[in-house]
């Protein structure tokens, strides 16, 4: 029984990440998942979702825009009743956190 619950939770997290891939960083024009900006996704028993997010730079003027886009993306998942975005700065983001796709798209080796 527990395995089924764990499988359902993993499936839900995968769907959350898929929804977050629709959130595009307006400056780099690449989604926040492939940029490596998502540091964690947690879902509680009450279906509260916490997204741990970092940004490419501190003081990024687009933080509110990206947060709003995250909230809209998660609304498409009916199992989630509420969402919270936590901005974290540790560990600091760098290009090593980007996916191969993002590095190729931005011309970074």
TrEMBL record:
Show the InterPro entries listed in the entry. Fe-S_Maturation_MIP18, FSCA_dom_sf, MIP18-like
All copies of the MIP18 family-like domain together span: 13-86
Output this protein's name.
Answer: DUF59 domain-containing protein
Native source species: Carnobacterium inhibens
